[in-house]
Amino acid sequence: MFNIIDTAASGVSVHRKWLDAVSDNMANINNVASTTGNAFQERFVVAKELPTHNGTVVSQVLSGDKTGRMVYEPTHPLADAGGYVRYPDIDLSEQMGYLIMAQRGYQANIAAVERATSAYQAALNLGKNA
């Protein structure tokens, strides 16, 4: 029974990191940089199965393209001589999809921990009543 809790808890941790990365991506989607600087880099969470097959762990957090996308905004204070600034190359609709998946995964793993904990407590109560 403890394996169930450990496995679900590792899933909670991975999905929390994914939620953090997606939140960062969405919060920085409109950050502007000069054309000589780097755009905000989208974050991607990579998870892997633990060798014991009892859950997952974040193996790395990758960064997206630092070149971003060039946008013509000649009135922006960071615009270069040609009137361009650099924005992150992040798709909001894609991030919303990731947000929903990460949130549902997080909720499912929390529910698994709660159910396993309830089953364990019920088993302990059976022992007390015997």
From TrEMBL:
Domain Flagellar basal-body/hook protein C-terminal: 82-126
Top-rank taxon: Bacteria
Database matches in InterPro entries: Flg_bb/hook_C_dom
Pfam family, any one: Flg_bbr_C
Keywords: Cell projection, Cilium, Flagellum
Family: Belongs to the flagella basal body rod proteins family.
Stated name of the protein: Flagellar basal-body rod protein FlgC
Species annotation: Actinokineospora globicatena
Higher taxonomy: Bacteria, Bacillati, Actinomycetota, Actinomycetes, Pseudonocardiales
